[in-house]
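Q: Sequence in, structure out?
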Amino acid sequence: PAAADGSLDHSGAVLTRVDLCRQRATGSAKARAAYLRAASCAVYRGKSGDSRPGSVTWGSRRNLLIKMYDKAAELRAHMPRPGLLKDPTLENRRRHSAILEAIKYRNALADWCDDVGLVRQEVQLGRQALRQMCLRELGDWNDYRAAEIAAEKVDAMKIGCTADLGDSLQAFLDAGFTKRKAATLSGVVSSWYMGQDV
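A: Exactly. Output:
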């Protein structure tokens, strides 16, 4: 129910988890792999991410969890299974046909995600984070606030940058490269960290 000022009245329900997400099209499956590789080097709150094939996570479910993953692989991993059609009744044939259509649609969607190199970025706010941010009731939320939190948490990681990146030029100079060659190689390192295909 809405109050006179347009905000939602307290319903008694308490939020225990909120998932916010953004999609990032990297351009291709190859660029997506490079982006996730660069993301695995990012540090959030002083900790490196937990890197697995096609995904990287930081944090904890109870407080704040940030995930980045290959959306095409995730769609394929959770594909519905048609099973065997043991009972040939009309209802079962319709259900079987609907499952086959869903599989066809999800395969096409996964192919599209591969074509654009889609990376899904999720921010899961658990009980502790919601309590700390005073966002435990539905009336505390709006689309602007959700987008702001998602952007703030993901952008804080500065994907593609690490504290050691500035030292690459000096490392090349110390290894005996000329200034010009060291600057060129340092640029390549920067591009790799930014997720570009080098």
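The CA atoms of residues 165 and 190 lie 7 Å apart.
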